[in-house]
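ok, trying the design again with the full structure, not the truncated one.
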């Protein structure tokens, strides 16, 4: 691989300016323009590696090139998700409920029972309720509706009602105007 002097100067200046905490400081190996990937063994330019953003080696280049990292992440995802169709229900869904809404699976089922086993707005017992996308992938859980300002969970909604609330932008006057408009009739 032939590197011109202009490319050498560009990469040298770029990596001195963009190395996070090590900004404006010469790093060991900053002059080196290439690195060998630990996975594929190919010698590649520095721009084909990511820069670590945390940990002890913050600011240093990652061990694997971007291409190898992408392939390994895809293989890991495929192994976990494609091998078991219930992977989402067993692992991702409970984790996402806790992470995004602060509730557990037991809280979800308690709320669903309090709502009579259906949507809090329309009462439908079908979580997809007319959504073509979710019918195709056989979605079986209701959406957790929450206030975007406070983060408090309000209830469980079917896909259509959740979109309705979202399109109203959680604004009570917009919802009242919608009710007034629908009550006029045709």
């Amino acid at each position: 691989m032939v590197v011109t002097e202009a490319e050498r100067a560009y990469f040298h200046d770029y990596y001195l300016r963009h190395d996070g905490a090590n900004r404006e400081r010469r790093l060991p190996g900053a002059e080196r323009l290439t690195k060998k990937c630990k996975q594929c063994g190919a010698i590649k330019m520095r721009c084909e590696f990511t820069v670590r953003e945390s940990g002890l080696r913050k600011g240093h280049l990652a061990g694997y090139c971007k291409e190898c990292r992408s392939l390994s992440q895809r293989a890991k995802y495929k192994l976990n998700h494609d091998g078991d169709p219930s992977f989402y229900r067993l692992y991702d869904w409970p984790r996402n409920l806790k992470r995004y809404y602060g509730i557990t699976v037991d809280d979800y089922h308690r709320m669903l029972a309090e709502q009579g086993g259906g949507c809090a707005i329309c009462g439908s017992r079908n979580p997809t309720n007319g959504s073509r996308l979710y019918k195709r992938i056989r979605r079986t859980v209701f959406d957790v509706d929450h206030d975007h300002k406070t983060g408090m969970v309000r209830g469980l909604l079917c896909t259509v009602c959740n979109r309705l609330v979202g399109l109203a932008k959680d604004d009570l006057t917009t919802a009242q105007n919608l009710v007034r408009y629908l009550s006029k009739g045709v």
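Keeping the full-length input from now on. Residues 7 and 124 are 62 Å apart (CA to CA).
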